[in-house]
Amino acid sequence: MLNIGIIGAGRIGKVHAESITYHVKDAQVTAIADPFMNEETTLWAKNLGIQNIYTDYKEILKDDSIDAVLICSSTDTHADISVEAIKANKHVFCEKPISQDLGKIKEVMEALKDSNVKYQVGFNRRFDHNFEAVRNAVEEGKIGDIHIVKITSRDPDAPPIEYVKVSGGMFLDMTIHDFDMVRYLTSSDVVEVYAAGTCLVDPAIKDAGDIDTAIITMKLANGAIAVIDNSRKADYGYDQRAEVFGSKGQVAVTNDTNSTAVISTSEGVTAEKPLYFFLERYMESFSKEVSLFVRAIIDDTEVPVTINDGLQPVLIAKAAKKSLDENRPVLLSEITM
Amino acid sequence: MLNIGIIGAGRIGKVHAESITYHVKDAQVTAIADPFMNEETTLWAKNLGIQNIYTDYKEILKDDSIDAVLICSSTDTHADISVEAIKANKHVFCEKPISQDLGKIKEVMEALKDSNVKYQVGFNRRFDHNFEAVRNAVEEGKIGDIHIVKITSRDPDAPPIEYVKVSGGMFLDMTIHDFDMVRYLTSSDVVEVYAAGTCLVDPAIKDAGDIDTAIITMKLANGAIAVIDNSRKADYGYDQRAEVFGSKGQVAVTNDTNSTAVISTSEGVTAEKPLYFFLERYMESFSKEVSLFVRAIIDDTEVPVTINDGLQPVLIAKAAKKSLDENRPVLLSEITM
Amino acid sequence: MLNIGIIGAGRIGKVHAESITYHVKDAQVTAIADPFMNEETTLWAKNLGIQNIYTDYKEILKDDSIDAVLICSSTDTHADISVEAIKANKHVFCEKPISQDLGKIKEVMEALKDSNVKYQVGFNRRFDHNFEAVRNAVEEGKIGDIHIVKITSRDPDAPPIEYVKVSGGMFLDMTIHDFDMVRYLTSSDVVEVYAAGTCLVDPAIKDAGDIDTAIITMKLANGAIAVIDNSRKADYGYDQRAEVFGSKGQVAVTNDTNSTAVISTSEGVTAEKPLYFFLERYMESFSKEVSLFVRAIIDDTEVPVTINDGLQPVLIAKAAKKSLDENRPVLLSEITM
Amino acid sequence: MLNIGIIGAGRIGKVHAESITYHVKDAQVTAIADPFMNEETTLWAKNLGIQNIYTDYKEILKDDSIDAVLICSSTDTHADISVEAIKANKHVFCEKPISQDLGKIKEVMEALKDSNVKYQVGFNRRFDHNFEAVRNAVEEGKIGDIHIVKITSRDPDAPPIEYVKVSGGMFLDMTIHDFDMVRYLTSSDVVEVYAAGTCLVDPAIKDAGDIDTAIITMKLANGAIAVIDNSRKADYGYDQRAEVFGSKGQVAVTNDTNSTAVISTSEGVTAEKPLYFFLERYMESFSKEVSLFVRAIIDDTEVPVTINDGLQPVLIAKAAKKSLDENRPVLLSEITM
């Protein structure tokens, strides 16, 4: 039984604590830390059976009984805590992105060089039933060689403008999942990026220096071409689709719904909207990614999402931003760490 | 080039005249007759290039240049005109049903015994792309042995009450197509029928002695069970579906629509309603059935819908009515001609 | 926090124990009993945190700290244990069917008369997301007055022949869920039943005196007509669909799948098969039904599936069997307790 | 009744001749010309009732009884014959593209300035039921302001390599329809183009200096972004889809099939492939575009596809080619006539 400490008791930290308790075999959460730990969260943690509740995450790193940590704190702290945890010889599961700063990611990579800890990045969508089905079809050769990859990723609503201002921009905040998905579905790297982006949802986003609508084209190392279309606001809900087209055919996934109900009336034939909220849509993926992290520790095997898998989407996001700024295709090799 | 005379210039007669002119190879309409031939219809016929326009269908039967007739007159005249046409040595395509009176159908069968004419009955739905696809899948063995057949057949709206009164009842007027479909999809005969029927759409239909909603269960000669559900009014349009389930799987067809458009908004994910009108839904089948009739004449082969195919659904409809009246399963063998 | 004892540690007992532990708020399993309690099950129970593990369920009934029991033992013991539990003043959740013997159900009803315990029957499909969506659409008036109800319910494979022999027949063993569904979706009672049934899947089932394929027509108290089609074996998986058609339109649900993946190749455009196994298909419904049972106890409100809801499907099943045997429609009023 | 002469009796010329004869009201084909007129085509034309059959199209232009011509000759002759026909005062329906040479298109525009003839370009897909449904939804405001347009257009198989060599390149030969579709669906012009293209289907296409796989991003005058993905070969058939996403939602169309049949077996749940051949897929659009051309002549109204609608996709195609060659986004204003 692995003992896990969770660093950060915000929304995603709580999701992980609950999903480990109820769904992850061979692991238990024995400690949680958050600088803003309050009464409600303390009660919630106790009810879950978490024994040690801290305001300072360093308490977790000091605790020899803890095998692994989940870093669920704010993005700007991910890299530094990663380095500390690695030095404390804890296995690390770090929420995405590791950092918006390539130098910080480099520091984590350096720290890992001298260590034996497992380091997994939280690209949970890789563990979604739909995207896994696409990947499996590709891996099984059902669609032959990959020619075209298409990802549609649209949020149900734009985040608060205060969040937009500190988000690092849409590519680093939102599209980063889609950049990872391109790599996951194709098992190939991105070589060049061209981003067309604009602000059509909310002018306040433009005022904050960001965009809310984009189409990003990527040339891949395997010769295929990929395209992502993003919007910060789809009125019909959270739109999460993917297609991979190849020499033998195509595999496509569309959205999940609450039920398969279809109502036919004089108004039309109406099915349900996509699930609206990302936690609802991707809930199963959170327990699955941590289960595989635990498995990799116990079996001493490679983690399914490596530090390089954490790095690459940040590089692509930075290339996309440069492309947007300079209105030209940008090579990933132009982005230096 | 076969010369065809059309007897009856009502809606279906006109449909056939136009579809032969534009879509049926090796045949042309050279005469049309209708007791109520008016100026508008005469003009329409002339524009189609029909040379002979009569009020008396006997003119068509007398014309030696005519090879075949399409009987599109009112249902109560189908059988008598069929006998006359057979005696005049014309090949006959007769709209369904041949007659609501089994004795009349017997007279046609007798007339055919001493003749060499082709006699085809107008069960056009057999030539619909969807139902053909079901039949083909069954014939190709894709679903194995047939276990269960399900047909949904719902009109978009109830007919005028004056029509209901002379229609012969829902089973003979509407379900007759579905009874034929059961035989067509299974290549098997119906042995026993149980009908549950009621009036839920319009009380005027009940006052007229008819029903508007029914579920009819049939035991087939091949051991399978079939079920039809009918309504005189589906608010969302003309609902025409079928499923055949067997030892290896199932084939199912659903409705046709004007387009594949799906609109996703905050209200839901809405596709188009089924095509509303039977002529729109089944247009292609009218030219196809006549093309095959023409083919059978030219090649001297069996017609695709025989006089027995015309008789059997009438027998089933009568058994269904008896079942409804007596609230018990009725054997087809109980229905005597 | 309600203390629950589970009587019967077979497949369904284990499902309930796990789902209560992980998903049901305000309740915990503190005891479990099974006459064949073995080492493996004991270990499983301990790992779940269940403190008391018995071979004799009477130990549970004696324990004053236990508020409610789940009866998950073999069907023939449901009624007797129900009566004992009621007398021991335990709230009861009883797996379906209460009994195949109407006299036994009557005994439970009698016992309930003099008690204040809650008694819920385990028709879990009422708590499935798809069937709930149908019911909600009906309740919200979206389809108007109900005219036709259609349920397709086909198992992925026939049960072992030894099970068939003691199952009470397909109607009591399998269709009973569908009979309940008709009542649930329509909020109406069944008045008359006509069953057409046969053996097409496996002749051994016929030798065991049972059928494996059926179409059952029901007339409802609200004037609507319902039809169920059943097969013991659908090669493509567990086929669970429903349609309710009414004066304003139709609501329909189809099967759940593992993913939305569609693969298009030269072979066709292929989606996933329905989920194969009933536990996979209906897993969420098990925690939901028990959650509502717990809720009803705590809030002292009516349970969502009453003893009468447990009785009615047994009456319908018996009428269906009588209909099959006598080949005639049978009134529910003909079935006497 | 309008008299029409058809110039060019190849595949598309024959399609128009038949569809006018059978489906276009108020028009008849009275002449057809083709330099390679042979016995078979002559017989075909006579059977259709076409009176005048020529090898020299100038005979048609000289014939005063002819009101309009359809130019269905080889692409390189479209512009010159257009100018001649305009000068001969014939209304002109010209197959797409008018020319691959912008100077030639300019000559046609010049000729039109001094004339009263109607000039329509053959972008038939505008008259397809699916794409019309998208356009209608957009025009009716159902999706609000347009943000993202996505078009998937993949041929079922690559053309012969000899054809590829003279085709003008994939953008001018194939994507040109999709460029027109972007303009049609959005009622907006393209301002800037970025094309990523490669050769993945057949290396012979690369040797011929062309590509077979592409993703083209466009910035539109209305602020929206559009993306087209192309392949010369989709193993599952002719893939023709479109989506328009906006502030209120999305409208999407997918492929047409021969039937709605879905076969469920142990192998999966399989629907039909898209219609394979463009003539099968778009047949109705050919009669519709000519019907509207005839209508515009008779009513003296604007044609639905103007000379500018013919020019713009050529400009976009040329910008796309320049983008591909120079690997940078290209403004349409960079392309000079």
Q: Would you give the CATH topology of the largest domain in chain A?
A: Dihydrodipicolinate Reductase, domain 2
The helix/strand order of chain A is EHEHEHEHEHEHEHHEHEEEEEEHHE
Which sheet architecture does the biggest sheet of chain A show?
7 strands, mixed
Instruction: Indicate the radius of gyration of chain A in whole angstroms.
Output: 20 Å
pLDDT < 50 stretches of chain A? none
The multimeric state of the shown protein is homotetramer
Largest interface in this structure: A-D, 37 and 37 residues
Brief summary:
The structure is a homotetramer of 337-residue chains. With 337 residues, chain A is of the alpha/beta class.
Care to describe what's here?
The structure is a homotetramer of 337-residue chains. Chain A is α/β, with parallel strands linked by helices. Chain A has two domains: 2-117, NAD(P)-binding Rossmann-like Domain (Rossmann fold), CATH 3.40.50.720; 126-279 and 312-334, 2-Layer Sandwich (Dihydrodipicolinate Reductase, domain 2). Chain A has eleven helices and 15 strands. Chain A has helices at residues 11-23, 39-47, 58-62, 78-87, 102-113, 129-139, 161-166, 170-186, 203-207, 278-299, 307-326; strands at residues 2-7, 27-33, 52-54, 68-71, 91-95, 119-122, 146-154, 190-198, 213-220, 225-231, 239-246, 249-253, 262-265, 268-271, 330-331. A seven-stranded mixed sheet of chain A has the order 12-11-7-10-9-8-15, with helices on one face. The first copy, chain A, has a six-stranded parallel sheet with strand order 3-2-1-4-5-6, sandwiched between helices. In chain A, α6 runs parallel beside α8 (170-186). Chain A is globular, with a radius of gyration of 20 Å. Chains in contact: A-B, A-C, A-D, B-C, B-D, C-D. The A-D interface holds A 144-145, 147-148, 150, 152, 154, 194, 196-198, 200-201, 213-215, 217, 219, 223-225, 227, 229, 231, 233-236, 239, 245, 247-250, 327-329 and D 144-145, 147-148, 150, 152, 154, 194, 196-198, 200-201, 213-215, 217, 219, 223-225, 227, 229, 231, 233-236, 239, 245, 247-250, 327-329. β12 (249-253) of chain A pairs antiparallel with β13 (262-265) of chain C.
